Amino acid sequence: MVVSVFSRLVKWIGGRLPLVLALIAVIFAIIPFRLPGGLEMTPLYPLMVVFFWGNHRGDLMTPGPIFFTGLLYDLLSGAPPGLWALVLLLCHGLALVLRDTFGRALHSAWAVFAVTCAAACFLVWLLGSIYDWEIKSPMEFIVAGLVSIALYPFFGVAFAFIERRVVAPMRA
To answer: Staple 141 to which of 25, 86, 92, 121, CB 3.0 to 4.6 Å?
Structure first.
């Protein structure tokens, strides 16, 4: 009886780990890093989490947690409400569609993430400019996208390790 309850609890936690990682990513994403020249570097950590888990384990990162993650990111970053929620949902859908075409190997996932990240940055810039009724400087979005693309292989390897060593045994 106790073993059954414990095993159910472990499976439940294993199924919620991507959401926990996404919420941690949101907190780290609102902490800006300053670069020389007054430019802030804010990698899109939530996008990395959503893309990876959508590409590898779409059953664990469903639209509900993604919407909640995006909405929290909107509220904490000062973005228009629903902007990142919409963008993360679109990127998750793109990851689900493209994973069968390009595979899950790191190099192909990195290329697909690069395209997805560029599209996400453009969409956030466009929708943010429309929301504010002024054309925003795209430099912030370009830097965030390039930094995120550069960091994705490191996070991809870390998430793959978490998937193999933590999530898979917990879900078995």
So the answer is: 121
